[in-house]
Amino acid sequence: MGDNSSAPTPVAATRDTGSDLAAGTRDIDPAPTSAADIRDTGLALTPPEDLHRQLSARLGGPARAWFDQALDEAAAQPGIHGPISVWELRLAEAGRRCGPEHADTARVLILHAAHAGPDALTRVYSQGTAAERRAVLHALPHLVDGPDALPLVEDALRTNDTRLLAAAVGPYAARHLPAHPWRHAVLKCLFTGVPVDDVADLGRRAHADAELARMLGDYAAERTAAGRPVPEDLHRVLTLTDPTATPPAPAAAHGPRGTDGKES
To answer: What angle separates helix 118-127 from helix 130-143, to the nearest 10 degrees?
Structure first.
């Protein structure tokens, strides 16, 4: 965002901005995990009540008490309040309080409890760390009805942070990102190594997309001419563009829904 003397004080200047991976983890009990932690790709697809149940079962006592208090604070004062809201501070603390393996889930749920709309999400994204930006992207399908938050997705797609890219191509982008930038997002996943499994609703959006097939073919030809390997995922996506294949059923969705169109 451009410089603006009247802009709110940057969150990074007022928060506890210690790294989520820092050693200050005294508030964390050994997590009683019995299964794999919630994958990044599941954060945008899993209903918040299920995320809450799963996370609560995995947090130790002090961490769970902090998390419950953070949700109560967010619910009591939703939205934006002044230069910084209490729940924004809790987003910055989540890694230290809950552990880095649970921080994304905690942040998504705090954003949900705060009923963060496009303005609040934009503030967190623009002023937050990469981890907080990732949480915003995961939270979009739970919180935003319509394309108002697409600038955040478009910004993330301009980065080379693979975890941010993976979050950006989730269900919110599948519903709202127009065809041309969506195709380029798929290509970017291929050349940055983001698995196409992270691209939400890939089969439906790629089906019978002749322009995507052309772009994939051009990219494969460029790689081959340069003596470089063609990503295996490229052939998989190319198969999905086949107009004679049976189109997949629309992906099940939770939270606000939107529409997208396919252009030639």
So the answer is: 170
CA dihedral defined by 43, 167, 140, 253, rounded to 10 degrees? -60
Per-residue pLDDT of the chain (264 residues; tens, 9 = 90+): 333 333 333 333 334 333 332 223 333 333 333 333 445 668 999 999 999 999 999 999 999 999 999 999 999 999 888 888 999 999 999 999 999 999 999 999 999 999 999 999 999 999 999 999 999 999 999 999 999 999 999 999 999 999 999 999 999 999 999 999 999 999 999 999 999 999 999 999 999 999 999 999 999 999 999 999 999 999 999 999 999 888 777 665 544 444 344 443
Nearest 10 degrees: Cα torsion 21, 117, 165, 38: 60
CA distance 166 to 193: 10
Spatial neighbors of 43 by CB under 8 A, at least 6 apart, are 51, 104, 105, 108, 135, 138, 139
